[in-house]
Each structure stands twice: as structure tokens, then as C-alpha cells.
Amino acid sequence: MSAGPKIVLDRVTKRFGERAILNGVDLSIEAGESLAIIGQSGSGKSVTLKCILGLIQPDAGSILVDGESVIGLRGKDQERVRAKFGMLFQGSALFDSLPVWRNVTFGLTQGRSRDTAHMKKVAEENLERVGLDGKILNLRPNELSGGMQKRVALARAIAPRPEIIFFDEPTTGLDPIRADVINDLIVSLVEDLGVTALTITHDMASARKIAHRVAMLYDGRIIWEGPQDRLYDSGNPYVDQFVQGRADGPIR
Ligand SMILES: Nc1ncnc2c1ncn2[C@@H]1O[C@H](COP(=O)(O)OP(=O)(O)OP(=O)(O)O)[C@@H](O)[C@H]1O
Ligand SMILES: [Mg+2]
User: Fold this and answer.
1) Is the pTM of this model over 0.90?
2) What is the atom index within ligand 1 of the atom nearest the CA of 44?
3) How far is 231 from 22, CA to CA, in rounded Å?
4) Residues with CB under 6 A from ligand 1
5) Which of 36, 75, 92, 147 could potentially form a cystine with 178 if both were Cys, beta carbons 3.0 to 4.6 Å apart?
6) Which CATH number is correct for 1-81+196-252, 3.30.470.10, 1.10.760.10, 3.40.50.300, 3.40.50.700?
7) Atom 4 in ligand 1: which residue has the minimum CA distance?
8) What are the two backbone dihedrals, phi and then psi, of residue 134, each rounded to the nearest 5 degrees?
9) Percent of the chain residues past pLDDT 90, beyond the cut
10) pLDDT for residue 2 is more than 70
């Protein structure tokens, strides 16, 4: 285990065709830290996350995880690095054709023997962690409410006990109470299990609750970062406009 930061992005750039989406993203996340990224729709938050996950290749710059470059990894090296990651995708991304228990254990069953009773038990334990009842084990995701689907996706993300978890808008579409259940879960993953967390969110209450530090992505760069308690006192007109949700200001 290296002593440096858990994740470091250095001048990461990414364009799609003529459009530069990331224009030199610099970001560093310590082990056990919870960082939230905020920014407008389409500003490249999910793209940033996918670059770290290795799902999108950046055009330039470097991305280190535990001091190791993760760009362009293949085969066993890629598997080894991906085993550190858990991911809650924007919009849950569950398999509707599979029962809940298979969704939750999906990342555990590949290449291993399938002891159904054991896998159901593992699924149940992880569902309980996210506040869901084992009674839903055999249901299909499309038989659940959106909030329950989100929690099933969260149970899937934590099942392999990853070192780093990425949450892409974990509270979007949930009622305020369910959203806070997810917030508490993220806090407990970080505090009790020592997980490093990177969360994308449009929910400022959630950002303040779950993150130690917040970074704002704008115009392809991180234009501000600071402790969560400075979010409403950043001294940055872009951050002010964004967190206050004002139509007028430097952001057009
Ligand atoms: N694979 C791709 N090919 C082409 N363009 C893409 C691809 N992925 C993302 N984009 C574009 O990059 C831009 C940033 O997308 P991204 O999904 O990162 O936005 P975001 O900040 O996560 O927004 P939101 O808050 O709405 O989820 C968008 O304009 C999107 O259309
Ligand atoms: Mg997104």
C-alpha cells in the first residue's frame, strides 16, 4: 500500500469530437476521504468518474490509484485495479431480467461456483445494510420503487467490499427521508469501513452531509475545492451561483 493519496488526477483532458469536455482536471483524494463533485448538467462529472474507472480513455493527463497509473490497463492488471472499485451508476443500472439477489451478487459470481443458498444469504446481508428486507430477494427490479432500486444498486456496489466507492447521484429521485438514509449509509461506509468515496451530486444537503471536501467542475476544470462547511461561504462567484441555484451570475 502506497502512502500517497488514494486517487490523483493530473491535467486530465477528454474531448468528444470537437467538444472538449475535460480540459485539465486536477484532483487528489486521500485514503478514507469522502469527496463530492458538483457541477452543472453536462459539465463532465460522469465522464470524470468513467475515466477513473477505466470505462473511458482520457486524451491526455494521468490518473493514479494507489500510486499506479490506471490509464490503458488491460487483462489481469485491469481486473486487479477494478477489484478495488465499487460503483453506483446514475440511474441504478440493474438487470431487470435477473432477480434482486442475482443483481446484488453479480460482481461476486463471475468465475466462481454458484452456491445459490450462499449467494442469497450474501445478498440478504447486503440488502440489510442498505435497509432493505430479505423478502425482496426473488423479485425483479422492475417490481420495486425507484428508491428501492437505488438501494439494491447500492447493495450491489458494496457487496464485494471495495476500497473505493463511486456514487453517481445517489440521492436523485428519492424522497428526502430515503435520500437521508442513503446519506447515512455513505457516511457509515466511510467512517466504519474506511472506504474512500467519490460522489457526484446535485443535492447540496447530501454533499454537506456525506463529504469531507467538495470540488466544483466548471468549463472542464476543477475551479474550486474546499471543506464541505465552506460550500455556502466559498468566496467563489461560480460556486455561490450554483449552490444558491440562481439563474443570473457568471454561469450562463
Ligand atoms: N461516450 C460519449 N460520447 C460522446 N459524448 C459524450 C460521451 N459521454 C459523455 N458525453 C458528453 O460529455 C458531456 C458531459 O457528460 P457527463 O455525462 O459527464 O455530464 P454530467 O456532468 O455527468 O451531467 P449530469 O449532471 O446531467 O449527469 C455531455 O455533453 C455528454 O453528452
Ligand atoms: Mg452525470
Assistant:
1) yes
2) 18
3) 23
4) 16, 21, 39, 41-47, 90
5) 147
6) 3.40.50.300
7) 16
8) -60, -15
9) 77
10) no
